Amino acid sequence: RHGTVPRTLHVDQPSSHVDWGTGDVRLVTRTQPWPETATPRRAGISSFGASGTNAHLVLEHVPQEAAALDDDRMVPLMVSGRSEGAVRASLERVADFVERHPDVPVGAVARMLAGSRTVFEHRAALPTTGTGRDTLVARLRATDQALWGAGRPVGDPVWVFPGQGAQWPGMATGLLEENGAFAEQLTQCARALEPFVDWDLLGVLRGEPDQPDLEQVDVVQPALWAVMVSLAAQWRAVGVRPAAVIGHSQGEIAAATVAGALSLSDGARVVALRSRLIAQHAGGGGMASLALPRAEAQQTAEEFGLEVAAVNSPAGTVVSGPVEALDRLTAWCDEHDIRCRRVPVD
User: Fold this and answer.
1) Phi/psi zone of residue 260: left (φ > 0), alpha (ψ -120 to 50 degrees), beta?
2) DSSP string covering 7-40, please?
3) 117-164 pLDDT, tens per residue?
4) Angle between helices 106-116 and 84-100 (to 10 degrees)
5) What does DSSP assign to residue 127?
6) What is the pLDDT of residue 196?
7) Do the beta carbons of residue 316 and residue 294 sit within 8 Å?
8) Chain segment 32-67, per-residue pLDDT in tens
9) Distance from C-alpha of 101 to C-alpha of 336, rounded to nearest angstrom
């Protein structure tokens, strides 16, 4: 950002044990300018810990035009403090910064506040979308325009359970043989699934020849549910407790089971019957992931007789419908240089 190469600390002269004339590596013994060139500037930062832990991070500069964030993708301005007075003081400081630095996008300020600050008990948030800079500053200083709340800092992790697609042949077999807590929970999941399936969970995971493979939707979804529930049991066995759980698509069933909202038997029933129903109606459609915001994706989908199936991000939307329509959409996206990836479901 500053176009500067900092000097190497704690050294004045290059080591005589290195042939500095070979290659293109030099020791930086003084801070010096780092001018822009036709290629991106990249820096490698190393940390060698006294305990033996080594880490290396590669950074690349961001062009100024790419650093600007669109207003419609802003997140709220969020601040916190140990008291309401501390929060009000923080809102005032943010207002001063936004006012003094018109060149810094408000979205960048919001993301910095959300992602790099310690969260304390007293909190306030202010929406930024559709708000002019002067209005935003006035609202920050008024403080009564903010949404106020209080809570406790969450020290425990949040467990996220994915949907279908996280599977691979041979998954969980190592844990099944080596981890007692995982194996015990997986065996209980297998028993819970028995009334609803005509295959054996452990046999499927081990790839036994008389068992179906993970390509069938009514096999892979119950198998993934069982593996996720058993992974949660393994983490709990080593003392890790979640503050909350959340699931995407069929991962919601695993999250509900782990949270206790569903019993193990009910979770097995839901995932087995749901996946069986999906399998019965499969074969006539498909899905595709478009690198487009929802509004653009919806307009494009309707032109091809498709529907929006999921909004994965501000710039990523999944559409679904007949295979023939998806084929036409894929060809159209190729012509217009829009990333379009078919999702392997039917």
Assistant:
1) left
2) PPTT-SS--TTS-TTSSS-----S-EE----SS-
3) 888 889 998 877 656 788 888 888 887 778 888 876 567 889 999 988
4) 150
5) -
6) 95
7) no
8) 998 888 888 898 888 888 888 899 999 888 766 544
9) 38
**For all residues of the chain together, what is the average pLDDT?**
88
**Cβ-contact 110, 77 below 8 angstroms:** yes
Rounded alpha-carbon distances, angstroms, from residue 109 to 49, 104, 114, 302: 32, 7, 9, 37
Q: How far apart are CA 184 and CA 203, in angstroms?
A: 15
Contact 145, 126 (CB under 8 A): yes
**Is-contact 274 224, C-beta < 8 A?**
no
The answer to whether 234 touches 179, Cβ cutoff 8 Å, is yes
Distance CA 225, CA 3 (A): 50
Q: How many residues are listed for the chain in this entry?
A: 346
Distances (CA, A) of 293 to 40, 68, 312: 28, 18, 9
Phi/psi-derived region of residue 165, left when phi > 0, alpha when psi is between -120 and 50, beta in every other case: left
First to last CA, the chain: 47
Burial 212-232 (b: 16+ CB within 10 A, else e): bebeebbbbbbbbbbbbbbbb
Encoded tokens for 200: 């054996």
Question: What residue type is 273 in one-letter code?
Answer: L
Pairwise CA distance, residues 310 & 248, whole Å: 11
Q: What is the reported pLDDT for 72? A: 40
Retrieve residue 110's tokens.
């919001």
Q: Are 108 and 97 in contact (CB under 8 A)?
A: no
